[in-house]
Specification:
This is N-acetyltransferase. By secondary structure, the chain is an alpha+beta fold. Helices cover 36% and strands 30% of the residues. The protein is built from 6 helices and 7 strands. The longest helix is centred in the first third of the chain and has 20 residues.
Length: 165
C-alpha cells in the first residue's frame, strides 16, 4: 500500500476532518455528549495553525484516498516535548499495518523539529488505543489534570529516531 502524508486541504476535505474527530471522540468516551462543545471553532483553529510551522495537520493517503488523519505539534507544557492531538484511521483501515508508518511519521517530524519527547492524552477506556500506544513504546506519564478520564503517555524520540528502530 502506497502511503503519503499530506497537509489537510480544508476547502476540499473538512467534512472528513469532522468525521474523523467525531469517531475518535466516540472511541475515546463511548458517547457523543460534549462533542459539539469540543469541536466548536475547529475549522478556524486548523486554518490558523496550518500557517504556523509548529503545527502539523495531515491526512493520511493510501492508494489515492484519505484513510486517516494526524494532528500534532512540536511543543507542549513539558520542555523539548511535542504533543499528539490525534492519531486516527478510518475503521476499515485499522489493523492493516499502517500504524507503524503513522508512528514513524510523527517521530520523524517531531525529532526533526528538535523534540526529544512526544506526549499525548488517551482515555483509560479506549483499550484499542492504549494497546496501540504501548505496543509502540509509549509509557504512562501521569493523569491528565484537565480531564479525569484520560492519562498522559510519553515516548522518547532520540532512541527511536537515531537508529533504535
Amino acid at each position: 500500500m502506497q502511503v503519503e502524508f499530506k497537509d489537510i486541504n480544508l476547502e476540499r476535505d473538512f467534512e472528513l476532518c469532522l468525521e474523523a474527530r467525531r469517531d475518535a471522540y466516540f472511541c475515546s468516551f463511548d458517547t457523543h455528549d460534549g462533542f459539539a462543545e469540543f469541536i466548536s471553532g475547529y475549522r478556524e483553529r486548523i486554518q490558523e495553525r496550518q500557517e504556523q510551522t509548529e503545527w502539523f495537520y495531515r491526512h493520511i493517503w493510501a492508494d489515492g484516498k484519505i484513510v486517516g488523519q494526524l494532528e500534532f505539534r512540536s511543543f507542549s507544557d513539558d520542555p523539548e516535548t511535542g504533543y499528539v492531538q490525534l492519531i486516527y484511521l478510518f475503521p476499515e483501515y485499522r489493523g492493516t499495518g499502517l500504524a507503524e508508518e503513522l508512528q514513524a511519521h510523527i517521530r520523524q517530524q517531531l525529532h526533526s523539529a528538535g523534540c526529544k519527547w512526544v506526549m499525548l492524552s488517551v482515555s483509560r477506556t479506549n483499550l484499542r488505543a492504549l494497546n496501540h500506544y504501548r505496543r509502540f513504546g509509549w509509557v504512562f506519564l501521569r493523569p491528565n489534570p484537565k480531564h479525569e478520564e484520560t492519562d498522559f503517555y510519553r515516548l522518547e524520540l532520540d532512541t527511536l529516531c537515531d537508529g533504535g528502530q
